[in-house]
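Colleagues,

For the teaching module next term, I've prepared a clean inverse folding example: a structure given as tokens, and then the sequence designed for it. I'd like students to try predicting residues themselves before seeing the answer, so please don't circulate the second half yet.
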């Protein structure tokens, strides 16, 4: 039996309606930007495996360090114990996070990172006896698949079946420049009429909403109004974090800093699963008390898993290196040149770029998971490029380490599609 047949026997894949989806493609190896399939075919990973493997797959600088750690300390309970990898990671991460971030809370993935962000916002007010139990979020945001994260997400295909179980959430549109003052008026009205505890947002780029980008000045104004009203600002940087926007974090583009930040994906460079929720001293202090019930009683078994911490430390070392910073600049420049090339194509609309994130829409209406979208996906895969169109949006978010020739291949396969479609 080949892998596909064995897979079908017992496995249930994420985001998949098995009755109508094609069978899963077996991947046997990955190196740099390339995924190697069981049948010998190769695919350029144009989305860095959901934006995780930003320093390339199986990067030896990272894998070697993780291998050493695995011989030394594999796992230990993080409630009551600590260890060098967790402490070192906190020291290294604090150096690159916005200056107000002071404390790190470990978890397992992006959804748990945001779930804890939401809990921090709600309990921050609860601990102070404030009657605030409503979250504020952007329309069309995506923050993960656990209940709190689903509640604040706006995409119904993911969360529609569970709507009646959600926490209370109010929504505002993203700021696009021309609507900024309208949103601020709407926000002030919502604040005056509701007990808003926190605001959760994907800063500048809404990934799952199809790499929709918004205005930094407008977001800064929203954050300022929230802060003036003691609304806890929770930046979900699960997608945008660790250099993808051209700065270490998307929050670096705004003067007003978040109270809480949610991190995962590129945090561990695609090697091991881990999430982190960080916060300012002010948030931490609201939980610091002789009263045990004011603590954050949330804990995941694998919190601060030592090999995952080592992967994260190595990832940060790479991110801040001159070599990776130069590679980021090179990818940004290549995307700009490609954008210039396709900008007048009649099929291309809504082009957008922030850092190494490049996206545009095809001038054709399409369902998010419909046949037409699948046709695009097939075109890319048939030509050895792994890109996952989101409806009619085609986006590239490749590893920073991708070579110029690999990038050229991605561009040419996209151009080929534009000319054929
Ligand atoms: C902005 C954002 N938040 C949260 C998540 C959830 O992360 P995970 O899939 O690791 O649970 C994602 C995943 O794509 C995301 O893009």
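(Answer key — instructors only)
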């Amino acid at each position: 039996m080949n892998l596909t047949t064995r897979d079908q026997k017992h496995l249930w894949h994420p985001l998949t309606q098995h009755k109508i989806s094609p069978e899963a493609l077996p991947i046997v190896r990955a190196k740099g930007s390339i995924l190697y399939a069981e049948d010998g075919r190769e695919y350029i990973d144009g989305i860095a495996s959901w934006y995780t493997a930003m320093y390339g797959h199986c990067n030896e600088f990272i894998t070697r360090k993780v291998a050493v750690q695995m011989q030394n300390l594999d796992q230990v309970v993080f409630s009551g114990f600590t260890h060098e990898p967790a402490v070192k990671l906190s020291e290294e991460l604090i150096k690159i996070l916005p200056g107000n971030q002071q404390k790190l809370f470990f978890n397992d993935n992006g959804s748990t990172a945001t779930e804890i962000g939401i809990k921090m916002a709600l309990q921050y007010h609860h601990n102070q006896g404030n009657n605030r139990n409503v979250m504020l979020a952007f329309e069309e945001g995506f923050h993960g698949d656990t209940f709190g994260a689903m509640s604040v997400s706006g995409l119904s295909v993911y969360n529609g079946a569970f709507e009646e179980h959600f926490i209370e959430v109010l929504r505002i549109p993203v700021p696009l420049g021309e609507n900024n003052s309208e949103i601020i008026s709407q926000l002030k009205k919502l604040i005056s009429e509701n007990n808003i505890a926190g605001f959760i947002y994907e800063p500048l780029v809404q990934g799952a909403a199809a790499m929709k980008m918004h205005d930094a000045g407008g977001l800064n104004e929203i954050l300022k109004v929230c802060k003036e009203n003691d609304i806890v600002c929770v930046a979900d940087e699960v997608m945008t974090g660790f250099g993808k926007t051209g700065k270490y974090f998307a929050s670096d583009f705004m003067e007003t800093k978040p109270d809480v930040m949610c991190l995962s994906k590129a945090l561990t460079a695609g090697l091991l699963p881990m999430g982190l929720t960080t916060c300012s001293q002010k948030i931490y202090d609201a939980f610091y008390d002789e009263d045990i019930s004011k603590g954050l009683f949330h804990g995941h078994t694998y919190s601060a898993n030592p090999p995952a911490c080592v992967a994260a430390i190595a990832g940060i070392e790479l991110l801040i290196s001159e070599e990776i910073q130069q590679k980021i600049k090179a990818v940004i420049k290549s995307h700009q040149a490609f954008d210039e090339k396709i900008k007048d194509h009649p099929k291309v609309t809504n082009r957008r770029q922030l850092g190494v994130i490049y996206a545009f829409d095809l001038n054709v209406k399409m369902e998010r998971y419909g046949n037409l979208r699948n046709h695009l996906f097939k075109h890319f895969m048939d030509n050895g490029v792994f890109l996952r169109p989101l409806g009619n949006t085609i986006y590239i978010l490749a590893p920073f380490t991708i070579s110029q020739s690999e990038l050229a291949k991605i561009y040419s396969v996209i151009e080929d599609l534009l000319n054929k479609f």
